[in-house]
Amino acid sequence: MLLTGLASAYTLRRAGHEVVLLEKGDGKARSTGGLRSPPNLTKLLNQWGLGPTLDHIARQCTRINFYAGESGDTIGSMVIHEDFIKDLVAGFMFVQHGKLQSLLLELAEQEGVSFRYNTRVLGADPDSASVVLETGERLYGDVIIGADGHGSVIRSSLEHEVNLLDQENHLILAFTIPVDQLRADEDLRPLTNPSTWAFWLGDGYVVHANVLNEGRDYTVTIVHNYAGPVRECDEDWRSQSNITEFGIDFTQLDSRAKKLLDLASNVSSRVVRTRGQLDSLVSETSKIILVGEAAHSLVPGGHHCTALALEDAQTLGCLFGRIQNKNQVSRLVTAYDEIRLPRSNFALQYDAHHQAMLKASPGPMREQRDALLRQTLIQDEDEHMEEATFMKVWGNEFVLFAHDATEKVEDWWGQYGSLIVQCPNRHSIVPNVEISVLKDTNQTRARVN
């Protein structure tokens, strides 16, 4: 079950609407891997009342180590001082995916969301606001929320790609290792600091890893450029994979990253195809809304995918909590598009540039990257980066981290809310802005009473 569907169902139900969540599986949390919760996501989870629980199950990140090239040379570290995060309100956290899923499921159940498990959706009709199930049954709602992930079938019902990015596929490998095994190896022992996030940057790949589960496990994610054939089964997460079948030469990894891969007893894999941008996150009928990876085409495995997805959910809840009658629904659907589309486009462009930078091949681009990183990374806890130097490299990351989805809705409503109340049938108040978007997984139907 995807976090996006749970979060969207929770915020919409909390806003007072009848919500049915359709889940193709049985809803049980199986992922033992980790995710990174940047400040914008941590802030949302705190707003939803999960802060005290996160204090027990999550670990705050205080240092990021960067290693470059096949030799694994240390480029430097970013020490996350209190003065770095104080303006962001919340910290950068490590949390297990399955545990966060269970927390969001509990929130949704407590709010009264209805669930239908083992229910596969084959498609959606934007005119009738209905979905067709694998059984042939058709379900109707006032609004369909497409939260069905990177391979979204809901997205295909309103897809209008306006820009195709470079057609680059990515192989994602994820696995966890008992920390005790790392402590037994002299080379790997330094990686077991529970507050440190390790990055290995190489030719066509990036590896990132950190301690998880109260210090018991070490979670590793490898994102590698992939030029091989893509089978249908490769595009879904496979819980047990033979990595040799992908034809990638993993001997190019830094020796420590190779050791981690050798220690993995169970590797999950997925091939992700690059998709184009969208010119709208909603259907022309205002009856279908895309959220999460169904809307944003960031490569899974990064630390912005989940944050953007839950920002979408919060935006929906804040907007739909202001509905006074059904005539206002289409206007607020358009408001969602106007608020989230620029954010999605900014994150997508940043992520594409960031991935290319991290995976740079040997040559001038990598040398320039390493030199610039060394200028902005520090080696000592007592050192501080100059603000101008920091913003030169990490400014866009800071913009992503500082985002507050609730405030964005409040700002929008402060400008245009009175016009919606006075003119509920007006389709759009803000001039149309041509932008873009991409993907996510699970389906949620919201019916407005």
UniProtKB/TrEMBL annotation:
Q: Where is the signal peptide?
A: none
Task: Write down the superkingdom of origin.
Answer: Eukaryota
* Pfam assignment, any one: FAD_binding_3
Keyword terms: FAD, Flavoprotein, Monooxygenase, Oxidoreductase
Q: Which GO terms describe its molecular function?
A: FAD binding; monooxygenase activity
Q: Where is the FAD-binding domain?
A: 4-346
Of which family is this protein a member? Belongs to the paxM FAD-dependent monooxygenase family.
- In its UniProt entry, what is this protein called? FAD-binding domain-containing protein
